[in-house]
Amino acid sequence: MHLSRDVVLLITHSGDFFTIDRVAEALSKKGAQPFRLDTDKFPLEVQLTAHFDNSKSYHTIQYNNYSISTEQVQAVWMRRIWEPQLSQELAPKFREACVRESKATLDGFWDSLKEARWVDDLERIDYASNKLRQLRIASEVGFVIPQTLVTNKAEAAREFFQQVNGKMVSKLLTALSRSMEANSSFFLYTSTVKEEDLQDAESLRYCPMVFQEQIPKQQELRVVYVNGNVFVGALNADVYAAAKVDWRKPGVEVGAWQHHQLPDEVVRRLQAFMGKFGLSFGSLDFILTPSGEYVFLEVNPVGEWGMLEKDLKLPIANAIADALLS
After folding, report:
1. In 252-274, which positions are buried (b, 16+ CB within 10 angstroms) versus exposed (e)?
2. At residue 2, does pLDDT exceed 80?
């Protein structure tokens, strides 16, 4: 079945629900045609063909009995790109080659959509994903940031521990692959560091880590920015404080999300911050301290927000649909 010209491509994966459905629904109500592309289903269930000659080039894609060409796509929502699901029976070398070629083919497909409006452009997402760059720019726009040390030197980590009076957390600069997530929750999520953890920290020389002062929390905020609009959910820190440093960790009982109004000054800094990255969308984490200070932690250019729409009825999907069609 062929769709009309007003197609909005939703790039995601087959395990994605709720947020993707909400955005698709909002787009349909506004008269656009959402086309969901589950990246993990390419190449086994998605057919992609690219044509190039001297007069023009175009791509066509078929999935779930629907077919579109790149010329029909007016906007792209970049939600998630996952690795192809290929049979484990393939010989590892052949499997690696298939994954590599599939990714390269998809990269060519994304490139063919450069005239469409993206929320957000892949290069901007990559640029904004560097957490040290985030801290630098956050500081430049006037946000308060935690004292931070990144090092592969055990002695430096021990000195920093003393400097922050033993109130220290560790985190990674990059997300682990999904295959590593299952058994690596200590590294994947922000974790408290104890003095004994640093006794034998020589393994740092193989892999640098991020260490930050532990900021006292009254509330943790998830702030969703969409094209100048700001949506906020707050969690009371005392609800999950007992040895739980990161509310995103599986099994952490976070209690109820609450509405929260950011001060105008914080909103202005937020808009300046997102403007420096050229992003239309981002999920940001802040801590509100007991003394009323807003401390910037990080931004995820493709971060989660479904819980805020679900629990607080915040119209984030509608704002994303507006951004895609603007």
Report:
1. eebeebeebebeeebbebbeebb
2. no
Kindly report the CATH number that applies to the domain delimited by 7-119.
3.40.50
**Boundaries of every domain in the chain:** 7-119, 126-144+215-325, 147-214
Rg over CA atoms, the chain:
22
The burial class, CB within 10 Å (0-12 / 13-18 / 19+), for 55 is exposed
| pTM for the whole structure | 0.88
Whole-angstrom distance, CA of residue 54 vs CA of residue 52: 7
CATH number for region 126-144+215-325:
3.30.470.20
| Whole-angstrom distance, CA of residue 252 vs CA of residue 307 | 14
Residue 272 CA to residue 230 CA, distance in Å, equals 13
Residue-level pLDDT at 183: 43
